Amino acid sequence: MDRSTKSESGQISILVLAVVIAFLLGTIAIGMVAEVLIAQQRLNAKAEAIALAGARELEFNQEQACVFAQEYSTTNFGTQAECEANSASIEILLSEPNPNRFLSTFLPKIQASSRAGIASDD
């Protein structure tokens, strides 16, 4: 037997093992990022719903629009919303802890904001 052929016989196994490990680590990383992105989309949807609920109240009772939006947020989503309203629009800011424990060391909170307003009659 040739000595050079025998010494290289296990190299493909190591290469295949390295590729499989890299693939698994990549899949795990994509899964963690996807978890955070889905949580961000859900938080955006909550912020939009709260802003729309506040905008409905804004048309009839501007002083109570933020109170109504915050009550809607607590009742329907169990979250505390920050609110700012003027005569034409209402803005909602939501913040929640990052659902992924590993990524929360780099990104401790996810945030979403939404603005809704009253259409003008022009």
Q: Into which percentage range does the β-strand content fall?
A: 15-25%
The arrangement of helices and strands along the chain is HHHEEE
The helicity comes to 55-70%
Strands ordered across the widest β-sheet: 1-2-3
Overall SS class: alpha+beta
**Overall radius of gyration:** 26 Å
The global form is rod-shaped
What is the overall pLDDT average?
89
Largest sheet: 3 strands, antiparallel
Number of helices: 3
Number of domains: 1
Report, as a whole number of angstroms, the end-to-end distance: 91 Å
- Describe the oligomeric state of these chains in a short phrase: single chain
Structural overview:
The structure is a single chain. By secondary structure, the protein is an alpha+beta fold. The chain has one domain (12-117). 56% of the residues lie in helices and 18% in strands. Strands 1-2-3 form a three-stranded antiparallel beta sheet, covered by helices on one side. A hairpin with a 3-residue loop joins β1 and β2. α2 crosses α3 (65-77). The termini are far apart. The model has no long low-confidence stretch (mean pLDDT 89).
